[in-house]
Amino acid sequence: MSDSRRAEVEAYLESNPEVAERFARFGAQREALRSALGPIADEPVPPNLNLGHLMVSNHRPNRSAWQAAAAACLLLLAGGGGGWMLRGMAMEQPVGVNALAQEASYAYAVFGSDSRRPVEIAATDSDALLGWFEKRLSEPISLPDLSGAGYQFIGGRVVATQNGPAGLLMYDDAAGTRIAILMRPMVRRDENAPMAEHREGDVVGYAWADDGMGYSLVGGLNVADALHPIADEARRQILKRT
């Protein structure tokens, strides 16, 4: 996409938040699929389903060789498709604070590394951002000050999750390292939950819930050791202001 076309798309998304949320959801789904399917895509094809092996070892006429190849394709598709169906059935979707932790990890994976537009509304317009959050989340919102840990607030956005809209606050330090806080109302589960560490791929975080609101502070592996005290400070400030 050219720079001019990209600018047009970004301007459209900025003026159409519902479309922007759907766009963000697609990005989160892409990262989720990449994280879940990447290791399996690298697995070798089982020897008994290797088409080259079947065709070399089959000494029947040419037509039979093609029939064997076709049969192998069908077996591969049926076996692979059935396996993925069973795998999908066996994989339980996270709920409660575990779902919140996963959502925060996906949001950070999408926007934390975005060099052009990591936030939708900048810190200079934080009143408008908090108003947007409170309108979409229907809850009073507190903006933690993490400058004591070396992180300055740079802005945020509303993102879509499987459990409704969530607010994403983005921070960075003098070196440009980013961390983020995702917050949303908890949906009939884990309305109060102790802080717990979580990890999704290369994203590490700490998630918790207080009085029906869930939070997760997330960052990359390079800041994993520093995240717990920062999460404690963010939680302290949020509890004090709400």
Defining traits:
single chain; about 240 residues; alpha+beta; Phosphorylase Kinase, domain 1; 2 domains; 7-stranded antiparallel sheet; 7 helices; 7 strands; transmembrane helix; Anti-sigma factor; transmembrane; membrane
What's the SSE blueprint?
Layout: H1 3-15, H2 17-41, H3 51-57, H4 62-90, H5 96-111, E1 121-122, H6 126-137, E2 152-161, E3 164-172, E4 178-185, E5 193-200, E6 203-210, E7 213-220, H7 224-241
Antiparallel strand pairs: 1-2, 2-3, 3-4, 4-7, 5-6, 6-7
Transmembrane segments: 65-86
Keywords: Membrane, Transmembrane, Transmembrane helix
Protein name: Anti-sigma factor
Task: Give structural notes.
This protein is α+β, with helices and mostly antiparallel strands and 242 residues long. The chain has two domains: 44 residues; 146 residues, MucB/RseB, C-terminal domain (Phosphorylase Kinase, domain 1), CATH 3.30.200. The chain has seven helices and seven strands, in the order αααααβαββββββα. The chain has a seven-stranded antiparallel beta sheet, with helices on both faces. Strand 5 and strand 6 form a beta hairpin.
